[in-house]
Design a protein that fits this description.
Length: 298
């Protein structure tokens, strides 16, 4: 029983990360209805930039760790948001309302550019953050198998949950959210009512990029490192979840992604770890096929 509870506790930070990523992805996906791999690349790119600048602040500027972390976070937010806005404005926007295949190809190109930029910036080194905020908090002091989480896991979980909650409030309770919903539901009708779909799309892409950058920073803080394999894997899983039905409802996408996070952790605990990704992607494909609905995508 204690082992099972520990796995549930360990799944909470992963589920929160998946939920925040899916929420951000759905914001951009809702106004384009086009699969975009750039989102996962932005997540990994921001994480790598964060680690790179923390290393720069620590080893070159001789900053204390909190100051180095602040420098890294500021750089990751700046470069992540900037890269997302550039990709959204000059690469994705001209293609977003045309062929879906063109968007996929362009997003692969953006992914390669971001990956190579981060690799060249780090001189092909694998940098690691020093552990911090790793004090253990005991939830169930079982003598044989205590149920615990670390401070950074709890902080990350709270920040991810707060990101989703604030984002949902903005989308449902503000004029900005009303414009976003109008374009997501029918961009032609929204245009006739005076809403500029292009502006809304770029703004949505920028918000999604910001969410991806924040998630990349927090994930790198916990894992200590970030690589594009992780970003691509997370991005493809989020893409599948959005395709199943949550693309126009960020909160539903977040809840579905959280469920996948719990499922993945439990598989790692009770199933063969080598088959984890195969099992998760297989499950997502099966659900996508079963729930597939014929519909016209404008």
């Amino acid at each position: 029983m204690a082992y099972f509870l520990q796995q549930i506790a360990s799944a909470v930070p992963v589920a929160a990360l998946y939920a925040a990523l899916a929420f951000g992805y759905a914001i951009a996906f809702a106004v384009t209805r086009r699969a975009d791999l750039t989102y996962g690349a932005l997540f990994a790119f921001a994480g790598q930039i964060f680690v790179l600048f923390v290393d720069f602040g620590w080893n070159s500027l001789w900053l204390v760790l909190p100051a180095a972390l602040a420098v890294g976070a500021l750089a990751a937010l700046t470069f992540g948001l900037g890269a997302g806005l550039v990709a959204g404005r000059y690469v994705m926007r001209p293609l977003a309302f045309s062929s879906a295949n063109a968007v996929v190809v362009a997003s692969l190109g953006s992914l390669i550019v971001l990956m190579e930029a981060a690799r060249l910036a780090s001189e092909t080194r694998s940098l690691w953050l020093p552990p911090f905020l790793n004090d253990v908090i005991v939830f169930w002091p079982n003598p044989g198998f205590p149920v615990t989480l670390t401070v950074i896991q709890l902080i990350n979980t709270g920040l991810f949950a707060g990101l989703v909650a604030v984002g949902h409030w903005l989308l449902t309770r503000t004029y900005v959210g009303r414009y976003w919903r109008a374009v997501a539901e029918d961009r032609e009708a929204a245009s006739l009512c005076g809403v500029d779909p292009t502006t809304v799309y770029i703004a949505a892409y920028g918000v999604a990029s910001l969410v991806a950058a924040v998630c990349g920073i927090l994930a790198a803080s916990y894992y200590g490192n970030m690589d594009f394999g992780m970003g691509l894997s997370f991005g493809v899983k989020v893409l599948f979840i959005a395709a199943i039905g949550g693309q126009t409802a960020p909160l539903l996408a977040a809840l579905g992604a959280a469920g996948i996070g719990f499922l993945e952790t439990l598989w790692s605990a009770y199933g063969p770890i080598l088959w984890r990704d195969f099992a998760i992607f297989g499950f997502l494909v099966i659900v996508l096929v079963v729930t597939r609905r014929e519909k016209v995508i404008p």
